[in-house]
Design brief:
65 strands, ten-stranded parallel sheet, 20-stranded parallel sheet, Jelly Rolls, mainly beta
């Protein structure tokens, strides 16, 4: 700070050559006597040391010299009074800066120091410089501390000591020295004071680091200008940006004490660039674990390649969080889906590979694969251009041989696919506002324990969250909203998907999905799907409905509990199995569907809530619990809630084991499903064999494989109406489809019995 420079303030008094009528022999106030025409003082025009100067014979005990002009003293400013003097003859005096402290109305400020340190002249002809600093604050180095009431001063010198000496005095100099106190007076340091140049090209790396080192707990100011940084810069102190910075892509700016998006936006002057650089610092520095977006809405003109933002980091496994803001996809050609078509060869001996792929260089990692025998949500995880191979996220159920495949590369607002591995990454309280322009988040090929919580995936064009590999292992998705861009379309016309999972042990809790093509496509096992609400209906009556939750691993070890499945069905299949026919592996089983709400409005009568679709022969069910659920239909009835989709292959119902389908409630369902199920059967005429048909009640067109109880209701009687106490045995698995149980009595009887049958062998 220097008011003489910044404000053009005139501080130095006029030279003696301009006349002595403005130089007082008193305190400098108006009306005091001056040196103009004074007998013992004269202007000397050509001194060898000073040029023009004032020569004075000391005749008073304290000989005063004061400039009568009012030199302003502004709050926060510090002035230095500097006078050069030499003794010519006679007695040698002591010299000091002297002043008058002026306040409002021209009154003197009392109780303040008005004399600077004295300097004794000890020889003749030697030039001595006398100085003093005056200001409002009592700071180290300030000689005259006048407080905040002083408005101006009359400055000059005092000659003390014996009279009779002659001295010559150079012109009085007054300058603003506030800058000398800035580093201790202000709570910031300016990078320009350490050599930074804001011309956009000069490398300021060293200057920035020097300013940070000197700050010592104070704030660093990056003042006006564009400052280029050619190297990495870490601020250990807080930093404030008036100017902006530029730096290479591979160099990072770490703001250790104020790491948030607001400061990066101020630093780089471009929101999208600032987001990339802030993410880069998030991974490059250990002084912070989360990037706060400060509630800001950040416009994205294209996909953010998260790996490109940190080009020297391929794997990262420490917890990091992006939170508290909105990312807004702005319509731009950069969001255009990439497409390619190539032929390739598939073999079950390498079930995750396509070989002999033509045009492989033009197929993007992260592309969705489609073709004959390809299941849903199969992505390109990696590629080898030289070997002409692609690595796939899932196996293909019926694609052996060479055929043509299509590849679609959706564009994601946050694209992590360039990383080899990224674990423990969190996105929290972020609204990904895709607006039908973009997809939202693509995971890397590998990683662990991703956590998406309290986020809005708002109108993704194609996908909300995509896993192209195994980074979804242990993934948690909690309290997120998946809001479709296709809500006005018929359910069967929608193509968007909330998320997919390829690995194991995901926790999907308390989310809400509105009218997307599907809520989720889930492979792997060990998943818990709890407390979610996904609905996929439309405004059509008597219309088909689609699968909202698709499970693609037969031996699933999945719990589906406390959810609200609205106008869609759960599909359980093995479409991600290169050898879909049952061999010696585990078949369909280890699935619990407990305590959920299933509802449909205006669905076609053939609609079903739970569907099993085997993609190969020989499969069966071993371990299924469907209990405590509510199945309700409004605006029409449906025939039943379960279905075995045999369009590719059928289940082997003779091998059903350990199935519990009980305790459910049904509304507007024509035929209930239950196992074990107790039914009442009557014969009005005596017969030895009673045929009891359970086929309508048993799940998935299953057989009545076991009878657990036969209890007569009242007496059994013969043709003469005489009570009969007879034994019986049962033949289950009878009739077309095996859904009938025959009860064979020791003699022909009539009456009524309650019979309990199961669709399975319980153990």
């Amino acid at each position: 700070m220097n008011k003489a420079i910044t404000d053009g303030l005139v501080l130095t008094p006029p030279p003696f050559a301009n006349g002595l009528d403005v130089w007082s022999r008193g305190d400098g106030t108006p009306g005091t006597a001056t040196y103009d025409g004074y007998a013992t003082a004269a202007f000397v025009p050509a001194d060898q040391d000073f040029g023009g100067c004032l020569e004075v014979l000391k005749t008073e005990n304290t000989q005063r010299l004061r400039y009568m002009g009012e030199t302003p003293l502004l709050p926060g400013c510090y002035l230095q009074i500097k006078v050069r003097i030499k003794a010519i003859s006679g007695n040698l005096p002591t010299v000091r800066v002297g002043a008058f402290a002026g306040g409002a109305g021209g009154t003197a400020i009392t109780g303040v120091q008005t004399q600077g340190p004295g300097v004794a002249l000890t020889s003749y002809g030697n030039v001595v410089e006398v100085t003093a600093i005056v200001g409002g604050g009592a700071r180290n180095g300030v000689d005259l501390s006048w407080g905040r009431d002083a408005l101006y001063g009359h400055f000059g010198i005092d000659l003390a000591g014996p009279n009779g000496g002659v001295v010559r005095i150079d012109d009085v100099q007054i300058e603003d020295v506030t800058g000398a106190f800035l580093r201790t007076m202000m709570d910031w340091v300016d990078v320009k004071d350490f050599g930074a140049v804001g011309d956009g090209t000069t490398d300021n790396t060293d200057a920035f680091e020097a300013a940070d080192a000197a700050a010592d707990g104070r704030e660093v100011l990056v003042s006006d200008g564009v400052f280029h940084l050619a190297g990495n810069v870490t601020f250990d102190n807080r930093v404030r940006f008036q100017g902006t910075v530029t730096m290479p892509t591979d160099k990072y700016l770490a703001l250790s004490q104020n790491f948030d998006f607001d400061h990066y936006a101020a630093a780089f002057g471009d929101e999208e660039l600032a987001f990339r650089k802030a993410f880069q610092a998030l991974l490059k520095q250990s002084s912070h674990d989360s990037l706060d977006l400060c509630g800001r809405s950040i416009g994205l003109r294209g996909p953010v390649d998260m790996r490109a933002a940190v080009p020297d980091v391929s794997s990262f496994t420490s917890r990091r969080v992006i939170r508290n803001g909105q990312l807004d996809a702005i319509s731009d050609p950069a969001w255009t889906t990439g497409t390619a078509t190539s032929s390739g060869t598939y073999s079950t001996s390498q079930p995750y590979r396509l070989s002999n792929v033509t045009n492989v260089a033009n197929i993007e990692i992260g592309s969705l694969v489609s073709g004959n025998g390809v299941g849903r949500e199969v992505y390109v995880t990696s590629k080898n251009v030289g070997a002409q191979t692609l690595t796939l996220s899932q196996q293909l159920y019926d694609a052996v041989g060479t055929q043509s495949y299509s590849f679609k590369r959706f564009r994601y607002m946050l694209d992590f696919s360039g990383f080899q591995k990224l674990s423990q990454f969190n996105i929290a309280d972020v609204d990904l506002k895709a607006d039908g322009v973009a997809s939202c988040v693509m995971l890397p090929p590998a990683g662990l324990i991703w956590h998406l919580r309290d986020c809005f995936f708002n109108q993704p064009l194609d996908r909300a969250v995509t896993s192209i590999g195994l980074a979804c292992q242990g993934m948690m998705i909690d309290r997120c909203q998946f809001i479709s861009n296709e809500q006005s379309l018929a359910a069967t016309a929608r193509t968007s998907i909330g998320f997919n999972i390829n690995a194991n042990d995901a926790k999907i809790r308390d989310n809400r999905c509105i009218r997307m093509g599907a809520f989720a496509v889930i492979h792997g096992s060990g998943h818990m799907i709890l407390g979610n609400h996904w609905f996929h209906g439309d405004n059509l009556n008597g219309a088909p409905r689609v699968a909202g939750l698709i499970l693609t691993k037969p031996s699933s070890k999945i719990v589906i509990n406390g959810n609200y499945s609205d106008n869609n069905y759960i599909e359980w299949n093995n479409e991600h199995d290169a050898l879909p026919n049952f061999s010696s592996e585990l078949s369909f089983g280890a699935l619990s569907i407990v305590g959920n709400i299933f509802t449909a409005i205006g669905a076609a009568s053939y609609f079903r809530f739970i569907v099993i679709k085997p993609y190969g022969t020989g499969h069966f069910i071993n371990g299924l619990n469907v209990s405590g659920n509510t199945f309700k239909v409004t605006n029409g009835n449906i025939d039943r809630v379960d279905k075995m989709d045999g369009s590719v292959a059928s289940l082997d119902t003779s091998r059903f084991r350990n199935i519990n389908w009980s305790g459910n409630t049904y509304h507007a369902i024509n035929q209930w499903t239950q196992s074990p199920v107790m039914l009442s059967f009557s014969e009005s005429s005596p017969v030895e064999t009673w045929s009891c048909d359970f086929s309508d009640w048993l799940p998935f067109g299953g057989r009545a494989r076991n009878v657990t109880d036969v209890t007569p209701v009242g007496a059994l009687r013969n043709a003469n109406n005489v009570k009969q106490f007879v034994t019986h045995y049962t033949d289950p698995n009878e009739g077309v489809g095996g859904g009938t149980v025959d009860i064979i009595w020791g003699t022909a009887v009539k009456g009524k019995v309650n019979v309990t049958a199961r669709v399975d062998n319980p153990y």
